[in-house]
Amino acid sequence: MVAFVAFASLPFTLRAGEYTVRTAEGAATVQVAANRFDPFLAVTARPELAQSLPVDGQGDGWASYTWYSHPFVLRAIFGRNVAAMGAINSYATVSQPLRAACDPSDEPALLRQMSVFADSALQTLNALIAVVRRSARIYHVSDLRRDEIHVTLRDDDGRLLHEDPLPASMTQEEQEQDSGVDLVGRDDAWYASLQATLEQGERDSLANELVMEAEMALSRRFPRQAVTTCYTTLETAASTLLTKGMRRRGLSDDEIAHLLSTKNLASKLDSLLARYTGFSLKRDQRPLWNLFTDLMELRNDVVHRGGRVSEDEARATLKTTYELLHWLGTVSSRNKGSL
């Protein structure tokens, strides 16, 4: 039987065996292989000691240290006259028979079906990761990306019939997105912006903290969390600005609390802002208002209907959030004298 096979390294170790995983597309089986310590390097007093490394990187007479660096679980082990460092991940596979109607020699049709399978396998593996993450409370563990699973077409004997078509450019692009702490190469504009921010002082606001949480959620591949946190960010920023305007008008804390709790975010950005700051997003910034309504619809789909969100949609939501925060900051500065 000819079948598609997706192979991935899980970001944790599990007992070997079969795991049935149910997603929106139905149930699928994930086969997890026995853990194996794969050393990247070893330092020994004598060459033959490298053969004494334990299969799983642990055992009597050995000390070990284990840590997570996505997508690997890394382990350093120390024995008498020998030390090694390597990966100790559990390796998982998902397979699916090639549809009888699909001719392996029909390259375009084969690649289309392989792409559909890759998306399904990625969803299955990330569903497994999500459940393990919650059950084991290992919340720092991230989902897999498409370039972190290897998809092939194989026959009954395991012979490779077709290699993963994932473009090398995509893999390189996503690898580059992972590195962000080496800032020496940033351009002059970035450093000018940094200096300007340092000189004006960082605003200590909950909205700024929340949008950073949204950025972190997206970087850890939780796009739905990023979208919902963006919405909360805007709710916080708008309510903070409105509170100042309402206090200027002499409203009591109880009146302010009632208004803010009974109006949705759209009303706050439109009629309430118009009344208490003189500005309305809907009236004064129609293109930005349209982007906000898209953000609100996406958030509502996630919260109320459990909708899925792509990373591109989450990035667009973050961009809109920053634009709205900038606009709210402009409104605040123009009301500074009266607020």
Report on this model:
By secondary structure, this protein is of the alpha+beta class. It has three domains: 3-33 and 91-177, no CATH class; 38-87, no CATH class; 186-334, Nucleotidyltransferases  domain 2 (Four Helix Bundle (Hemerythrin (Met), subunit A), Up-down Bundle). The chain is 48% helix and 19% strand. It is built from ten helices and ten strands. The protein has helices at 107-136, 168-178, 188-200, 206-219, 223-248, 253-262, 265-276, 281-284, 286-305, 311-334; strands spanning 3-9, 17-23, 26-32, 38-44, 63-69, 72-79, 82-87, 91-97, 149-154, 160-162. The strands form two sheets. It has a six-stranded antiparallel beta sheet with strand order 2-3-8-1-9-10, with helices on one face. Strands 4-7-6-5 form a four-stranded antiparallel beta sheet, with no helix packed on it. Helix 5 (223-248) crosses helix 9 (286-305) and helix 9 (286-305) crosses helix 10. The longest helix is centred in the middle third of the chain and has 30 residues, at 107-136. It is globular and about 80 Å long. The mean pLDDT is 87.
